[in-house]
Amino acid sequence: MRTIQMTLDEELIEAVDKEIKKTGTTRSAFAREALYAALRCAETKEKEQKHREGYARKPVQSGEFSSWEDEQAWAE
Predict the structure, then answer these.
(1) What CA–CA distance (Å, rounded) separates 51 from 9?
(2) Contact 43, 35 (CB under 8 A)
(3) Roughly how many angstroms between the first and final C-alpha of the chain, as a whole number?
(4) 3-state helix, strand, coil in the chain (%, to 5)
C-alpha cells in the first residue's frame, strides 16, 4: 500500500470521524471502502450507459420477445 495525502473539508472529516467511531474502523479503511464503492458505482454507470447506447442503436422490435411469453411463470 501507498500513503497519500488528501485535502478534505472540515465538515467531511468530522462526519467521517463520527462514523468511524461508530463502526470501529479507521479513516484509511473507511476511505478505501468508499473509494472501492465509488469505483463499483462508476463501473455500473458505464455498463448502464453502454446498455442504453446498444438499445438506441438497435431498439427492441415489436414482437421480438413474444415467443417467450408462454414460458413466463407468474406467482399467484
Answers:
(1) 36
(2) no
(3) 54
(4) 65, 0, 35
Q: Report the 10 Å Cβ neighbour count for 32.
A: 13
Q: Is the distance from CB of 30 to CB of 20 less than 8 angstroms?
A: yes
pTM (global) more than 0.70: yes
Question: How many Å apart are CA 27 and CA 25, to the nearest integer?
Answer: 7
Q: Is the pLDDT of residue 76 over 80?
A: no
CA 5/CA 34 separation, integer angstroms:
16
C-alpha cell at 55: 438499445
pLDDT tens per residue across span 16-27? 999 999 999 999
Give CA–CA dist 32/22, Å, rounded: 17
